[in-house]
Write a structure and sequence with these properties.
By secondary structure, this protein is mainly α. The chain has three helices and no strands. It has two domains: about 30 residues, no CATH class; about 35 residues.
């Protein structure tokens, strides 16, 4: 592996482009394959998350318009 590659190494011609610099300085040790069951689960979960975000958009925008209240310590501690 080469020494640390700085952005200017591409600019001054040490490497022809960023891809060449990255290829010269890295090595793929292993490749991970997705688990189809987990992928399906997270696809469904993400769809529910997007649905929740759409449903809460009006509430979130209303909350963001509220004034910021200063944080003060309660009398007598916690």
């Amino acid at each position: 592996m080469t020494e640390l590659i700085e952005p200017y190494h591409v600019g001054v011609g040490v490497f022809s482009d960023e891809y060449s610099a990255a290829t010269a300085c890295t090595e793929v040790l292993e490749t991970a394959q997705p688990d189809p069951q987990r992928a399906a689960f997270y696809t469904e979960l993400f769809a529910l998350y997007k649905q929740a975000q759409r449903g809460l958009a009006v509430v979130n925008h209303a909350l963001s318009r509220l004034p910021v209240m200063p944080v003060t310590a309660a009398k007598g501690g916690l």
